[in-house]
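Researcher: Let's try something more involved. This one mixes different molecule types, so please make sure each is placed in the same coordinate frame as the others.
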Amino acid sequence: MQQRHPLNTIALYLTVLVTCGLLLFPIYWMVVTALQPASNLRAYPPQFWPADPQWNVFADLLAKHPFMLWFSNTILIAFATMTISLAVSILAAYALSRFRLRGGQGLGLFILTSKMLPATLLIIPLFAIFRSTGLVGSLWSVVIAQATLIVPFCTWMLKGYFDTMPPELEQAALVDGCSPLGTIFRIVLPVAAPGLAATALYAFVVSWSDFLFGRTFLTTNDESWTLQMGIASLKGEFVTEWNVIMAGSIMASIPIIIVYLFLERFLVGGLAAGSEK
Amino acid sequence: MIPTIDFSAPRHRAKFGYLLLAPAVLLMAVIIVYPILLSVSISMQDVRIARIGDSGEPWTLENYQWLFGSGETWHALWVTFKLVAVVGGLSVIIGFATAMLVNQKFRGRAAARLFVALPWAVPEVVATVIWAWMLDSSFGLVNWVLLTSGLVSEPIAFGSNPTAAFAAVCFVMIWKGYPLMSIMLLAGLQSIPEEQYQAAKVDGAGVWQRFWYITLPNMLPVVGVTMVMTTLWVFRDFAIIHVLTQGGPLGATTTLSILTFEQSFEFFRMGQGAAVGVLTMVLCAIISRALVGRMAKSVH
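Model: All components are placed in one shared frame. Result:
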């Protein structure tokens, strides 16, 4: 590679810094707003640096709202959705990738199409079903509803990943007397770990960020809400306490931002494998 | 004794495959296929609050008469298309520019790649409340910037002015939508063979010529896929608009998704809501044909 002119290098770094600064400014503003004393939020000109950070805003938030319940509801839903979707998708994706089954192609197309269903349509029949089965208000209603979108996506993503793996290893294991199911668990899954991580991450993030399903199925009382519903409800209050909302927003986004920072490499590879092919 | 089947025997291989598929097929039949059929049947009945089983209502097409006869549907369709055009156009530009930027070779590139797509990980509701605060008509930062730079003489009321509210929805959607574009376009850029650029350099092609004759033609298919994905997302998204403007003011931000929800869960006219939803589903199916056509090649 030829040497770049020093001035060009400086220009490149400046461009990168300014671009990231501008694009990530809303995240910075969320943190600054949360830490400002409430009186500063109406200051003119705006305060760009929290000179006197108010850490008790988090205590305020926990005292005024059932925030810990929202947090644990969200975690329960996200883990249940992730586990169920992954278990079902792994088996289906493996079958679609390795076997030439009658109807397999049709099923693949169906999975692909159902990724594109509008969720606002699905909630109407699902609401009818949950009402008749008494699931409205239960966290399971949200888990089941999320599976409608997440299972197709995970299956497709994992199939793309399995397709890139050579089948020779499994054949060798089968010849050596390993059972077909044992082959999947002992040979395929360990090798596919990065793809599994990406898929699990995707399922977790989508489930964590859900608003529509919670908003539709969990309206009975605020103790069964998810984080996203809680934050949306804070915005709707008569007097909007922006510092409290932003403190809640920080807590609602930090877990998935951390997950993203650690697993981004896998995610990019997985998304590219799952969507481009 | 239960007869055991040796699934590793070649003639039983297919059975094992079907067994693996069974949970997914069953699950999808119950939570996707049945609900779709149910929603089509709800859309053809005069139902206020839907339940399963025979509602005793006669089959009717009046929901569809309302759907195509009322101005609401056409207005929502128009809003949706405007949103697709603005959000799709601008987020592909930002996505492409950021992907090109972090595709350069420089120290710290890995970190830059990580940060440039970070808004992807921010939940939609959180992104929306941050922007709602920045766009606040009295104390919002955006209005302060616009006022001090002299671009406007009085603060913009993003909550009550229809055009401004539409712009506000666009801001949030672009901010949430460009990272995925950036991620996918970067993957596309990386798959362009380096030799093409070197050959062009040898032939004396400048930076712009290389971009125009190598980068763009190679990237067109990926750009197409990302555009379709963004279009489908804008068509179906609910959280951003619902939290930011609730479809208002005066329906200026009521997309098909918002109209579906409004009819079904605010006015409790689930028959009409389902009709709007079925229309949305058909439109999404038509749009996604472009995508499915490309992807279906890899089904087998």
